[in-house]
């Protein structure tokens, strides 16, 4: 994913530089300036382009470092979220286990009470015969 971002930014920067060169060429071709004036203007554009190209590795390095920092922060946040999710899942499992035990105990108590009632009823019916 970071390679895609890096290549996207590289394409954007190169596109910008190419647009600058094309724009300068169109401006020179359509300008009503004399030859020396046009050469001076072209020289200025060339110097500007040279400065921008010289700064490009520095800007890309800063972008890379910023991207790496953001990526590491996102990884740490992801780890924390996974940890919290695991903790919540464990709490939910414990809650369900507790409720399952309580339900099992209630069912068992109900079976015992039903058996006692059946025996008591059976004795009453046996006495009345």
Quick summary:
This protein is 95% helix and 0% strand. By secondary structure, the chain is mainly alpha-helical. It has one domain.
Q: Could you characterize the architecture of this molecule?
A:
- With 129 residues, this protein is an all-alpha fold.
- It has one domain (2-128).
- The chain has two helices and no strands.
- The chain has helices spanning 2-30, 35-128.
- α1 packs antiparallel against α2 (35-128).
- The radius of gyration is 40 Å and the shape is rod-shaped.
- It starts with a helix and ends with a helix.
- The model has no long low-confidence stretch (mean pLDDT 82).
What structural category arises from helix and sheet content?
Answer: mainly alpha
Structural domain count: 1
Distance between the termini: 86 Å
**What is the percent of helical residues?**
over 70%
> Using DSSP, what is the number of strands?
0
Oligomerization status of the protein chains: single chain
Percent in strands:
under 5%
The ordered string of helix (H) and strand (E) elements is: HH
Tally of alpha and pi helices: 2
Rg, rounded, reads 40 Å
Q: Determine the mean pLDDT.
A: 82
């Amino acid at each position: 994913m970071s390679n895609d971002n890096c290549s996207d930014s590289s394409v954007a920067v190169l596109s910008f530089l190419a647009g600058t060169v094309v724009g300068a060429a169109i401006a020179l071709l359509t300008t009503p300036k004399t030859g020396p004036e046009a050469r001076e203007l072209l020289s200025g554009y060339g110097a500007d382009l040279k400065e921008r190209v010289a700064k490009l590795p520095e800007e890309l390095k800063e972008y890379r470092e910023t991207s790496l920092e953001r990526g590491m922060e996102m990884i740490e946040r992801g780890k924390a979220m996974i940890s919290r999710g695991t903790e919540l899942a464990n709490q939910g499992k414990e809650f369900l286990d507790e409720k399952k035990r309580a339900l099992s105990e209630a069912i068992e108590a109900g079976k015992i009470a039903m058996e006692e009632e059946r025996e008591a009823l059976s004795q009453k019916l046996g006495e009345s015969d």
